[in-house]
Amino acid sequence: MSDGSTLVFVYNADSGRLNALLDIGHKILSPSTYSCNLCVVTHSAFSMRGEWKAFVEGLGLPVEFLHRDELEKKYGLSGAALPAVFLKTEGRFSPWLGSEEINRCGSLQELMRSIRDKLAAQAS
Predict the structure, then answer these.
(1) 84-89 sheet: strands from edge to edge
(2) From CA 37, how far away is CA 26, in angstroms rounded?
């Protein structure tokens, strides 16, 4: 991947303490109906999984994590199917890993494999 690129991970959830508390309750009480698979596979009920944190730190490129309301406030993007990962290069956004692909990942290992495969395909 070219220098200056950032992977922007966007959760299908809104930011803020109240929303975080509601999300925790939803994940605990009814995990099968929770709308953000990126949250489900990368976080426990209360925090980011250590394995995921180490993985993104080892990617070798900058990453940013946003909630859907933050994506719109910070970058003016709305209406995208979420969760998703975007590639930000020189302020321009391109879809990189779509919601369908993320939602097919049944585990953290599957998500990490998808990201590694995509990075390897772009490097060749």
Answers:
(1) 63-67, 5-11, 84-89, 92-97
(2) 13
